[in-house]
Amino acid sequence: MSFTLAIVGRPNVGKSTLFNRLVGRRLALVDDQPGVTRDLREGDARLGHLRFTVIDTAGLEEATDESLQGRMRALTERAVSMADVCLFLIDARAGLTPSDKVFAEILRRSGKMVIVAANKAEGRAGEAGYLDAYSLGLGDVIPLSAEHGEGMDDLRMILSPVAEQFAVTDVEEHEDDSDRPMQIAILGRPNAGKSTLVNAILGEERLLTGPEAGITRDSIAVTTEWYGTKVRIFDTAGIRKKARIQEKLEKMSVSDGLRAVRFAEVVVLLLDVNSPFDQQDLRLADLAEREGRAVVVAVNKWDTEDDKSEKVKFLREELARLLPQLRGVPLVTISALQGRGLDKLRDAIVKVHETWNTRISTSRLNRWLIGQVEAHPPPAPSGRRIKLRYMTQVKARPPSFVAFCSLPEELPESYIRFLVNGLRKTFGLEGTPIRFTLRKGE
Ligand code: GDP
Ligand code: GDP
């Protein structure tokens, strides 16, 4: 994750010019969801080695009447609420105007970090206005020329420590590399049909590489192509010949599973239709959830089931009841032995993998949050109002969010569940764990 910068200021100071310079042609998103304002532009900015999100209040005209002024203010407040840092632009040639002071006040009250820049400062005409800007009392002022690209180094130097503050060092995050195989672990009790499934997926001739040295002596990874999707399957009890006696397998499977889960992106929990959801299945499911993996539940030996439609209904209910932490996880029925349902299984895996990788922009999240809080304000257990003003996705794989709350320890668990369920619904985050953290902040 990196940070979000809002460019704020009255019309005509050069916000769009600066926005365009930072974003180049990388305008990522003009959100046109119904009911959402289109007056905020968002783009992926690049400044030297820095990468961040930039928001601009596009297309505002100088406010002449009150309704326009109100709108301008509301829009600015919204942009500010989405931002980690605000860049306040004034026009160095025009000097400070009463309108600038209104914006300065909005920023001061927001409590956000503010950088003041005097734009159009190329040449000498800007000197007076530049010095004028110090009287805003918002700290140092940097001279900029968005049009001529001057002052961009200064801006970069001021933003560098901000970027560091928001940087996450996450070894699991790599650039999206579509050629990298998707890492899958198939977990299940002994005899659920794991090796049969792996062999069905592999097929003789599809095997790209032979069994590799596994992550441990006891497990093996194979890379193959599965209906066009490159996958690496970590096998816990599968491909290796079952030289072991059953008891030993029984004992091994959970710790073995743990190792496979650590390396997997998607965990396929394989159940036997004749004894679904027993203790060991539940433990494995829980393990996958706690490790933050995407999950698909596959019910095997479907060929032995007579009353298929009744059974599906039963299984879905059981899944919801026994594994509420895995809400929305897809359930597919297969016959590994007959090679049936494998395409459905692959589709489900690809889908949850995608979901697991989801990234939602800070601005979309905050628009959503504002709506949720308006529709269902957080309760006030101790009589004090709990403010929940801002959230952001700190990482993907699995999607992880941080929300800033005035009284984090008082926000009831049920309200957090309400938000997490809402996130799932609105952004289609089914089949993946979600991490949600509260931090103290206004
Ligand atoms: P916004 O309304 O704040 O988005 O402002 P714009 O980006 O549309 O710029 C308003 C006007 O100022 C345009 O005519 C720009 O060409 C001009 N402008 C923007 N940046 C500079 C600058 O650095 N120097 C000069 N001289 N003019 C600029
Ligand atoms: P593992 O211990 O999970 O690797 O399970 P295996 O793949 O060794 O399968 C255990 C037993 O279940 C074997 O006798 C398989 O032939 C059988 N089996 C596996 N998949 C199916 C299936 O889809 N239908 C039926 N009827 N039997 C299956």
UniProtKB/TrEMBL annotation:
<protein>
    <recommendedName>
        <fullName>GTPase Der</fullName>
    </recommendedName>
</protein>
<keyword id="KW-0677">Repeat</keyword>
<dbReference type="InterPro" id="IPR016484">
    <property type="entry name" value="GTPase_Der"/>
</dbReference>
<dbReference type="GO" id="GO:0005525">
    <property type="term" value="F:GTP binding"/>
</dbReference>
<dbReference type="Pfam" id="PF01926">
    <property type="entry name" value="MMR_HSR1"/>
</dbReference>
<feature type="domain" description="EngA-type G">
    <location>
        <begin position="3"/>
        <end position="167"/>
    </location>
</feature>
<feature type="binding site">
    <location>
        <begin position="235"/>
        <end position="239"/>
    </location>
    <ligand>
        <name>GTP 2</name>
    </ligand>
</feature>
<dbReference type="InterPro" id="IPR006073">
    <property type="entry name" value="GTP-bd"/>
</dbReference>
<feature type="domain" description="EngA-type G">
    <location>
        <begin position="182"/>
        <end position="357"/>
    </location>
</feature>
<comment type="similarity">
    <text>Belongs to the TRAFAC class TrmE-Era-EngA-EngB-Septin-like GTPase superfamily. EngA (Der) GTPase family.</text>
</comment>
<keyword id="KW-0547">Nucleotide-binding</keyword>
<dbReference type="InterPro" id="IPR032859">
    <property type="entry name" value="KH_dom-like"/>
</dbReference>
<dbReference type="Pfam" id="PF14714">
    <property type="entry name" value="KH_dom-like"/>
</dbReference>
<dbReference type="InterPro" id="IPR005225">
    <property type="entry name" value="Small_GTP-bd"/>
</dbReference>
<feature type="binding site">
    <location>
        <begin position="188"/>
        <end position="195"/>
    </location>
    <ligand>
        <name>GTP 2</name>
    </ligand>
</feature>
<dbReference type="GO" id="GO:0042254">
    <property type="term" value="P:ribosome biogenesis"/>
</dbReference>
<dbReference type="InterPro" id="IPR015946">
    <property type="entry name" value="KH_dom-like_a/b"/>
</dbReference>
<feature type="binding site">
    <location>
        <begin position="119"/>
        <end position="122"/>
    </location>
    <ligand>
        <name>GTP 1</name>
    </ligand>
</feature>
<feature type="binding site">
    <location>
        <begin position="9"/>
        <end position="16"/>
    </location>
    <ligand>
        <name>GTP 1</name>
    </ligand>
</feature>
<feature type="binding site">
    <location>
        <begin position="300"/>
        <end position="303"/>
    </location>
    <ligand>
        <name>GTP 2</name>
    </ligand>
</feature>
<keyword id="KW-0690">Ribosome biogenesis</keyword>
<feature type="binding site">
    <location>
        <begin position="56"/>
        <end position="60"/>
    </location>
    <ligand>
        <name>GTP 1</name>
    </ligand>
</feature>
<comment type="subunit">
    <text>Associates with the 50S ribosomal subunit.</text>
</comment>
<dbReference type="InterPro" id="IPR027417">
    <property type="entry name" value="P-loop_NTPase"/>
</dbReference>
<comment type="function">
    <text>GTPase that plays an essential role in the late steps of ribosome biogenesis.</text>
</comment>
<dbReference type="InterPro" id="IPR003593">
    <property type="entry name" value="AAA+_ATPase"/>
</dbReference>
<dbReference type="InterPro" id="IPR031166">
    <property type="entry name" value="G_ENGA"/>
</dbReference>
<keyword id="KW-0342">GTP-binding</keyword>
